[in-house]
Amino acid sequence: MSRARVVVVGAGPAGMMAAAQAARLGCAVLLVDEAPRPGGQIHRQPSPSLAGGAVSAAARPEAERKRRLFERFARHAGSIDHRPGTSVTAVYGLDRILIADETSSQLIRADALVVATGLHERVVPVPGWTLPGVVTAGALQALLKGGRVRAGDRIAVAGAGPLPLVAAAQMVEAGATVPVVALLRPLWLGLLRDPAALWAGRGVLSEGWRWLSVLRRAGVPVLTRHVALSVSGDGAAERLVIARHDGRGRPVPGTEQRFAADTIAFNHGFTANSDLARMAGAETRFDPRRGGWLPVRDSDGATSVPGLFVAGDAGGLAGGLAAACDGAVVGAAAAGWALHRDAGRFAAQAATDRAERARHWTFQAALAPSWELPPDIHALVTPATVVCRCEGVTRARIDRAIADGHDGLNGLKRNTRAGMGSCGGRSCLRTLAALAGPRGEGEAVNARPGIRPVALAALANRVSDESMGS
């Protein structure tokens, strides 16, 4: 390699800014992302044939953020080797990173590796959640942003935190009827106790108020302290049952309500995509509010593995605004390491982003209680409820394994096959950990090669192997 190389995994806000910053500071940058276009989940881009169209008043702040992000990225895009449609499926060390697209694979080297893989949605299973028509709130957004497709005509939404509200309002603007939004907790509890956080997040709060106004004008009931009990229907989702809960997540008898819907969306928070960092050997800790098993990182994004950095929500839920700032900070640190083995070498280059990141982090810390799940909510997972959708594993099977002494995640996975499916446990591991108790949450499942599924033909077609000097 003629120049020090920074490899960035993920082209969401954090990855885009990390790549742009490292390129600006003189590094050769390889940006790897599974999507066909950059932007990540939050700024998912439709195909060019579907681009354009009017932007509503509520959506304008996000559209403006997206414009600024892409403009900043575009200034350095010509110096970035962007590989869309490409996965990192294994990290054996910075000198052996396995990437693959649909037809071929490469084993590459990096002087610094930035993991900016974001997070995925968490759903607490309830009876009927595997019926056709049950999706996540993020899936509603992905279909709308990426394909201009509305998931249904009558869409009920339930969960925790701000995403269910925003997704529901976007469905209203897309022409759907939303019979209810049911939230586990009020959104403003932590914020009302922290005036500094309210001020720090005033722009985001204003945006949230616009989305809430969309729901109010449409007459959508927004119920707080309510929990989803079940989904039912004849071969597909047709009804959502909710109830007020007692503060610990258990339904209060006699408060049940039923809502007809052809689509039901859940979101109970998020789990960080930390498997690549863990596979590379990074130390992790468990933080239920910020995304589960998180790589331990310093303010520059540096982990316990020299040269390995984590940026954005992959290091802990903080939102898209914070992720973009964090990406710029981490990109500068990765460039300093790659070029000089000094992560602080270019700290001054990211001073503005560091200060802006601190403001967003203050706001997000106060908002975090809104998506903390009540302690007894997993009591709603009945013995017959499927927990692992890929392998069809029910709670009853998991409970038997726990009773037999398999109370760690790796033991449960081996014993029940929960988490062995094509999603890699993204849908079930947090539930599995909660059912297993303290040991389950303390023990991250082992991260192994094949983190992202790729074709065997692509693995067999190895076009280069930099670890061997080719």
Automatic annotation (TrEMBL):
Region of interest: Disordered: 39-58
Signal peptide boundaries: 1-22
FAD/NAD(P)-binding domain residues: 5-314
BFD-like [2Fe-2S]-binding domain span: 386-435
Assigned keywords, A-Z: Oxidoreductase, Signal
InterPro entries hit by this protein: BFD-like_2Fe2S-bd_dom, BFD-like_2Fe2S-bd_dom_sf, FAD/NAD-bd_sf, FAD/NAD-binding_dom, Metab_Enz_Cyan_OpOx_G3PDH, Opine_Oxase_asu/HCN_bsu
Protein's name according to its UniProt entry: NAD(P)/FAD-dependent oxidoreductase
Species this protein is from: Azospirillum argentinense
